[in-house]
Amino acid sequence: MDTLSKQQRHNNMASIKGKNTKPEMIVRRYLWHSGFRYRVNNPRLPGHPDIVLRKYRTCIFVNGCFWHGHEGCRHYVVPKTNTDFWVRKIMRNKERDKETQQQLARMGWHCITVWECELKKDRREQTLASLAFTLNHIYLKDRSILYQVPEEETGMCIAAEPEGEY
C-alpha cells in the first residue's frame, strides 16, 4: 500500500528529471575539464544520447540504476507496491536501451554506459579516469585504422625515403 496520496505521488514522479541530472553533470564537468568537447542530448541520434562526442564517434549514456535496471546493484530495488507495473516498465527501458545502442552501433557509433552507482564518491575518480582512458583508446584505435598501411603495400617507398633506381 502506498503511503502517499495520488496527488503527492504524482508530484514526486513529476519532479524527477530526465536531463541535467547530478550524475550526468559530474560526467560532463569531468569531460569538459579534461579537454573533451561534446554535445548534449543530440536529437538527430537514436535515443537522444546524454553526451555525444563527434570527434570520437562516441555516445555516452549516464543511466540511473533504478530506471534502467542495473542488475546486481543495491540501488536497483523493485518497489513493493505496484510491482508488475515497475517490472514491465524497467524491462521496456532495458529493451529500448539495447535497441538504441544496436542502432547506434550499426551507424558506426561507439556506446558507453556510465551507471549512477559508479559515480558515487568512493568510485568516482576511478570511473572517470577509466572513461577518459577508453575515449583516448577509441580515438587512437580509429585513427590507426584510418591511417594504417595495408600489408601488401609495405614494400613501397614512402615520401621521406630516397628514391630507388628505376
Automatic annotation (TrEMBL):
Keyword annotations for this protein, in alphabetical order, are: DNA damage, DNA repair, Endonuclease, Hydrolase, Nuclease
What GO annotations for molecular function exist for this entry? endonuclease activity
Origin: domain of life: Bacteria
Sorted alphabetically, which CDD domains does this protein's record hold?
A: Vsr
Does this UniProt record's set of keywords contain Iron-sulfur? Answer: no
Which SUPFAM superfamilies does the record associate with it?
A: Restriction endonuclease-like (SSF52980)
Family matches, as InterPro entries: DNA_mismatch_endonuc_vsr, Restrct_endonuc-II-like
- Annotated coiled-coil positions are none
What family does the database annotate?
Belongs to the Vsr family.
What name does UniProt use for this protein? DNA mismatch endonuclease Vsr
Q: What is the lineage of its organism?
A: Bacteria, Pseudomonadati, Bacteroidota, Bacteroidia, Bacteroidales
